[in-house]
Amino acid sequence: MNDASPEAGITIIYDGDCPFCSRYVEMVRLRESVGDVRLVDARDPDAAAWLTAVRLRGLDLNDGMVAIYLDQYYHGGECLHLLAGLTSDSGLFNRINSFVFRSRTVSRYLYPVLRAGRNATLAALGREKLP
Fold first, then answer.
1. How far is 13 from 66, CA to CA, in rounded Å?
2. Residue 5 domain-assigned?
3. Could you give the angle at the alpha carbon of 57 between the alpha carbons of 55 and 59, nearest 5°?
4. Is residue 76 part of a domain?
């Protein structure tokens, strides 16, 4: 495992059992602006080193996905705000994402609502939270 650097691009660690998280990381277009994009499913056994790094920083993936960019860790609403600022404007999803989450304030207040929807969906689907 290497932390992200300008040469290394960006790493996004997310819950692969969450349908919203999985679709989001598939749809957001970052390669044009950051280069290499590593998607790490936190439920994959090979993600252990990434999970350790996240936990050492006191971040909980049940409270939000994490992006590692330029050696900084962004979590939850801050992560969405970062990704909105880095994404291209190609495609309707990316334009909407950028419009909504480029505001740090909107990201901060909207993210708990999104997280509650994620948790309710996981419960409805009978899926466990991350350990």
1. 5
2. no
3. 60
4. yes
